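Our collaborator T.R. sent over the components below with a one-line note: 'Predict the complex.' Nothing else. No constraints on interfaces, no templates requested, no preferences about which chain binds where. So this is a plain run: every listed entity goes in together, and whatever single assembly comes back becomes the starting point for the next discussion.
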Amino acid sequence: MRYIVCMKQVPETTEVDIDPETGTLLREGIPSIINPFDEYAIEEALQFREERGGEVTVLSMGPPQAEEALREAVAMGADGAILLSDPAFRGSDTLATARTLAAAVGKMGDYSVILCGKQAIDGDTAQVGPELAELLDIPHVADVREVREITEEGITVERMIEGGYEIVKAPLPALVTVLKDINEPRLANMQGIMRANQTEIPTWGIDHLGMSSSDAGLEGSATEVIDVFTPEVGGEGEMIEGEPRDQAKALAGKLRDAGVI
Amino acid sequence: MMDFNLTSEQKMVQDMVHRFAEQELAPNIEEWDEAEAFDLSVFDRMAELGLLGHCFPTKYGGGGMDYITLALVCEELERVDTSFRVVMSVHIGLCGLGILQWGTEEQKHKHLTPLATGEKLGTFGLTEPNAGSDAAAIETVAERDGDEYVLNGEKMWISLADTADTFLVFARTDPSAGHRGISAFIVDREMPGFESEEIHGKMGIRAGDTGSFTLQDCRVPAENLLGEEGEGFKIAMSCIDNGRYTVAAGTVGLIRACLEASTQYAMERETFGKPIAEHQLVQQMIAHMTRDEEITRLLVYKAGWLKNEGVRNTRETSLAKWYGCDASFRAAENAVQIHGAYGYSNEYPVERYLRNSKGAVIYEGSAEIQTLLQASYALGVRKDKPVRCELPGWPYEE
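Returned assembly:
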């Protein structure tokens, strides 16, 4: 059983600038981390391996420095890592990214589950996981909060929906995107960190993946980011003081005055 | 030649310890501090994460990291509370590195390996009720009897006294020979005649175990003599070099904690119609903290670099320890001042920082001892002589 985790290195802060030409993030000087949702995906894959055997490979598309994030995943316990990096991948939107990941998965041989974080905290699209599954022609379940069972035949998960959750079963291989409720990601230990530094991480470029430049990067992208900005915080907050009963009464009055209730 | 970049390995360790401290220590620290207690499972977690042996050579079960990594670990732990850095100081700095420096190959395999894996906790027993700064005045005695030494005496203000398994104990083998009559022994808690107890009522570092232990006709195998007979004082001083290094590194974290708390509070709290961060006298206190954090870190990195190079660093380490301890006490005092009356209560962590910071101005060489040491180097009165066993530089020979 092989478990593949797709992960992304993201800037630690949400206050990032955008390259006006490519519409992508300017990463210079900003500390980078593993996309927090992806840490949960890594942890889940590690738990699969601990329960059922097999191996965990982490996969990331990004600039050469994304190798650091892959090493962090190896330090957590992943068996191997592959970096997809090539100037030709620059400016990829979610579709071009998913195509690139799909090409890489195609080169990796058999696998049973692909795990992704629900979304990346920089782009916030939540599209790459489902797009990757579509391109690979495998089932996917997004927003998974718990894996109930995983057998040779399939994976049964709880998927969050508005107002509750549904239980979904999918045959393998399948792709799941996970929420933060699913587990508590482990800390890397010293042994893992030492191993991470000795692990060789291959870099696969566009030629290795056998992709055409019209399918990758800016050229292969179907969408374009026009602008990214931090929304302005509007309105003044107001604190209502007093006993809970009086606070509730005052709040109801204000909501009524505003025409909300 | 100068390179202040951390390696990716160092960054990963720093990040791991930061998260560990934030996620698993910080949520409990107020309760532990108040109750003068802590959860022993913290040591299990530290062992699991490899923190108890990270900078010991891998051939003794350690992580093989360098001395700068040791500083990073200390900084991150003390940023949350001094008690956790103290574990690094005694287990790694004073005990483990002492055995690494002075132990025979056999002693290292036997006594350092269980410390490195966290199977055992180590500490250091030099101070006595009547001998602190004047370490040569210790009264504990060790008499040779066949293949054993019989130890008698009392040790006080010992961190982890009631928790540790392995004790590096200093005792007189020749009462007439002054500091040349002191020897070092690796003592195990399980040895008959060993008894420890906790000390309560400390002003700070209350989430840590400090205590005393007595040795009553405690028979220690002769093979547990560390170094040679009469070498104990030199061994103690080199252990203290390593301990002081961890204390100095910890103060960087303490200053950082003061700075973080103070900047946040100063931007939120308003007086005279504006955030207090806009008042210049508050800015001055914050600027001093920034300065001291950076100066102390540079002093620590210099000492750490010398350690990596395998160069004696008593002078540089003492300077880092002296400056850092004074600076962290000052930073904590100013952090309380910035927080005003709130800072004087335990509603904010800064009063704990102030209580904690005072300890290091006293232990592992008081500020006065460091002052005299620096003067004696500057005046040329003191010069470091090579010792029989030097602390290995890094990378370690495997």
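Summary for T.R.: Chain A has one domain: 2-215.
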